[in-house]
Amino acid sequence: MSRKSAKIDALLAGFKAGGLHDPHYAGYFACFNRQLYYEAHDVLEELWLERRQEPQAGFYQGLIQLAGAFVHLQKGRLRPAGRLFALALKKLEPYPSINADLDLEAVRRLCREHCRALERDGYRQNPWSPERAPTLKLIHS
Predict the structure, then answer these.
(1) Which of 72, 98, 125, 136 could form a disulfide with 77 if both were Cys (CB 3.0 to 4.6 A apart)?
(2) Residues of the domain holding 51
(3) Cα(12)–Cα(68) distance, integer angstroms
(4) For residue 140, is it within any domain?
(5) What is the DSSP letter of 138?
(6) For residue 124, is it within any domain?
(7) Model pTM?
């Protein structure tokens, strides 16, 4: 087991297998909503790596890219954040508005709004702050 796996296991300790969603998927939202975007990325990446050949792989990858975009915003790297928002949007576009109990249209809107805000300000002003951080909620959890 790698050190990364041990850290992910610790993050997922509160999520049980056999629940409504895979613990990695549920853990992604818990981390994201606590502004632990790097950890959200890592948690969901483990699930994505296991399921890269499945139809949902692009969906997971889009959510991973979304978390990565917020990592860049936290660090003030605005252009890389903009690129990841655009990549996330492209990965998420083919999926229905509600996918895996997530209002995906709201997530796509979040990506578009952040892309527009970054472009509008010429990548000089960060649209993210801890006080205005978005949260993502599953319809059924």
Answers:
(1) 72
(2) 3-132
(3) 19
(4) no
(5) B
(6) yes
(7) 0.91
